[in-house]
């Protein structure tokens, strides 16, 4: 835990420096989310004009029951089938539904029309008016049945899609009579006349209707306007935060600096947490300022709402947007048009929730739809508007119940936002494993279900002996020298092959790099040196074979392996906002060194590499050779047990290169060093052992003395033949044309 805290402090120290260096970008990112709410507050008197009215729903406020006989039924009725009994019944129904016209006082009867069959009725179903009804009799044939079965179809909107009681909402509920009264009038006419025909007795049953009355209420007409405005502001205000964070994450991943940080033992989880903590202060400023503008000012936009509940929602929604930015940063693997892609992604992720927000869905779908981006925020503001509409205001009393037909309670909104953040961060963690970028090592999509991902097996000496049997037994002893049995292996490469598309970059490479020695890897461009080093450091995954660093497998135990590894990549990877000294201090402190000690050791290392007079320069201000020195300094920072240096002296002048040799030679005996180079002179000066690659195959691995005895003194350029006739390669160890004892095989 202490190491995690220390690592987070170092990462946040780096983020803080970047914040100060970007003195224009940082204020915009912090203040921009609240700017729209400041504008709303400034012009609220013009945008939100107070307006209210009393809501009346006809006879909902009446206590007296309504006689069903006084209700008017459908004006036109179609029925099927047409038989003697159905015609007799419909004639009686026609008389029962007669009504007096309120304008002419004339007695009117509904129009009764028989239909041939049900299919004929279906043709007119889409064209009928609201006051038309269809009756389909199911079981009337030659005699009256004991139980009459029939179907009534009307165009009235009976709200059968609604899964909730309308009485749960605040204010007056709707007057259902205008919808259900004609239907009930027709139903009672059919039932009563059928019973009279069946029994021969007159039905005198009195039927009345009575809806539950509701007190007359006053509605705030601006509440819904406020809700719509706040939804839009919450969406738009966080767009820049999303775009800036997504761009930073994408740039760090594509540039390779993220993988370089991982090489010094920082896990992807800790790196992600540092980015979250970097944007949390801006989120708190946005949430606090917005809450004050909406609830605590002299003339608040939401005068009756609890400020704490508003603040909680703003913070949770901010965190879901941050999590969404993490996910979206893995959409592409290049930095072209980053800002445009970020805006497009933000808008596209907004659309599903926007399309669903106004629809009334079954309750069982709420946990699923609640995971759509921004949708819980919409539901929250709908709840606020529903309460504000009747002067109640959002408070802890109402957070467990829903007052709208399309959303859920405030507490459910909070839970959905929390689940969203967890889900999006989880997806981002998964994508970081399967889409790490051009410099990372991608795991298979189903790695979570593979046993080897969860295993932490350490390779034992017995395993080494077993793996050694896999080594090609046909190695020529002239080019391959057996090591003493008591030597410990620092890096073990076992039958490693790597295929890119249809090109084989490495083919069955087996190599031991011993502790306390400097092993030099030789080979011309395209020989496979960088590919092999990328596999060793975990930046690439081997197509076949395994690599072990200090007994740790580089795929399944990558996080543990990277804590003991220092890497100087072939390409320079730097933070654009840090100076030379800050780069070295950063990587030194990641090794657990205190700030004071890191400052002193970094200055000494910078001076040793000839960078003292440029310690305050940014990496972009350095020449090519200076950048290689800085990259080497980052690899040497701290106390890595294993160093992998990919052409560390490339681009350096002779004097600086000689000084660097002395530095590397001082590491002999204390660290395991694997170094690649083009220079034979450098290999002879530094290497305890030399390994040569050509066309992806290991051609030799021995001490320099062994190779000298086998090939003679090597100072010029030439070629060496070996193996079968015609197998020719540029010699990594060229023979001296003046040495008569040098021979080619």
TrEMBL record:
One of its GO terms (molecular function) is ABC-type transporter activity. It is found in: Membrane. Residues 725-745 are annotated as: Disordered. One of its GO terms (cellular component) is membrane. InterPro entries: AAA+_ATPase, ABC2_TM, ABC_transporter-like_ATP-bd, ABC_transporter-like_CS, ABCA, P-loop_NTPase. Residues 491-720 form the ABC transporter domain. CDD domains: ABC_subfamily_A. It is a multi-pass membrane protein. It comes from the Eukaryota. Keywords: ATP-binding, Membrane, Nucleotide-binding, Repeat, Transmembrane, Transmembrane helix, Transport. Its main location: membrane. SMART domains: AAA. The keyword Disulfide bond does not apply. The keyword Heme does not apply. The chain crosses the membrane at residues 23-43, 229-250, 270-296, 308-333, 340-358, 378-399, 411-432. Belongs to the ABC transporter superfamily. ABCA family. This is ABC transporter domain-containing protein. It comes from Euphydryas editha (Edith's checkerspot).
